[in-house]
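Limitations
The structure tokens in this dataset are predictions for the assembled complex, not deposited experimental models. Users should treat interface geometry with appropriate caution, especially where small molecules or nucleic acid strands are included. An illustrative entry is reproduced here so readers can see what is and is not provided.
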Amino acid sequence: MSALQAQRADLLVLGAGPAGMAAATQAAQGGLSVTLLDEQPEAGGQVYRAPPAEFGPARASPDATLGAALRQALTASGARHLPHRRAWFVEPGFRVHVVGPAGPELHEAPRLIVATGAHERIVPAPGWTLPGVVGLAAATVMLKAEGVLPGHRTVVAGVGPLLAAVAVGILKAGGKVAAVIDLARPNDWLRRLPALAARPELLARGVGWRARLAVARVPVLHGYTVVALHGEGELDTVEVAPVDAVSWRPLDGPRRRIAADACALGHGLVPDTSITRLLQLRHVFRPEQGGWVAETDADLRTSLPGLYVAGDGAGIGGAAAAEERGRIAALAVLRDAGRLDAAGHVAHSAAPRAARQRAERFGAGIATLMQARPGPYAAIPPETVVCRCEDITRATIETALDAGARDVNQAKAWTRCGMGPCQGRMCGETLAELVALRLGDRAAAGLLTGRAPLRPVPYDLLVGDFEYAALDLPAPAPS
Amino acid sequence: MVGTEMGVASLRIAGIARGASISLSVDGRAVEAFAGESIATALWAAGIRHLRASPGGAPRGMFCGMGVCQECVVEVEGVSVLACQTRVVEGLDVRLRHDDPA
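Predicted assembly:
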């Protein structure tokens, strides 16, 4: 491999969602040289993702306004924002290897804030691999950024606030929602009202979405789940069934079939821990925050000096909490780098700490609503594909468990589930839940060991041009 | 802005300003797209959702929409790219791997 010239900074921030943008802004304002690395063409992350520049100015919405304000502050702060960068390896110290638009790059800094957000938890059902079935987050991107409907008749299914957001987004765009299939019952929402009242404006928005669905006479089935997706080569029918109120296990009895050419499916969010797992940090299992998270102190310092986590990657808390966590992590960086004394740190931290607390109360209400329950996993039929990359079925995983696999890494090694190019981001949750069904304990199922490359990267890009004859090869072993 | 579509049957949302109208080649077939769209969006709007085959030969298409799941891999100018993370360019030559599991 040709040696890359490292680009140095005082601080690297990975991920330009609300946490990364706020962190980079705060640290740059505090006098540090900051490089913010992100995969997308524009800062914003998934929640504040902007339409492509070619589409002209974004249409007004609460999210567009919040995202624009963060982007503006980021630009004004002088932080160096590098888009189109895919991080594939992170070394302690810290060295971040990325693939950029012009090829591989190496970024180096004594401090690193990981703000890589979350990905979706999607419980497998037969047929979930059919073209036409997408994640709720994918549907959001299509509606908000790409300007395209998920389908002519779309079923929106799963759990959490994105259900109503996506369904209303489809209606506003002139599309048709065949049905909303919600695992939660009204009671699940009512019980969380005290927490949700911490953000009255968001609560009101959620209530408004529900009203809009009612006005449009969209069938909303509470306490239902998708049990199968049918179609020849592409989706044409979604099969749904009621679930029990506690474990969300589908109940026996008649099932409903709904004609639809698209289904947007999502069962909550999982914090992205790929980098902190790669660096072998201590993690704790917090199901009420989406699952495993790196252990941190109150200022988001991890157990590895110089490494901080912020945003949903530190536990699902929502966009507003992510932004405040970004500020808090950056203030900890400034304190640790000697740019702030103890008194200054306390003074600057007061406002973001208070805002974080309020935002996290709301976020906790949403996160516990979306918390994984065993029923939907227990109901996955044996021949259903769990690992999409490698076509590994539940039956194959159960065989490994029968043979004695007792944690996710054993199950992965024996079945290849989680070894494909998505690196277990799509199947890791299901694998862990299936192991947990045997052990009766999700934390005991463990978490997948982090491996590089974090993202698939073209090998020739990393290796560069070389003459095979010029390589210093060892002599072959005597035969 | 050019290319605002009003077609009832189109999955492109009406009334949104888009980039310039351009043309892609998908397995040799011309597909209309608008500057700024991802390859996945352009194909989705054209009704092309089956993008590749799984190792077992099953049809797959865009799924996560954010560069995580790797299901929307297509071949562009001989290189594997994620269709949801790659923007369209006039004359882009896209090949779908229906027979050749990636």
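Some entries come with short summary sentences. For this one: The interface with chain A takes residues 1, 9, 11-14, 16-20, 34-38, 41, 44-45, 49-51, 54-56, 58-71, 79-80, 84-85, 87 of chain B (CB under 8 Å).
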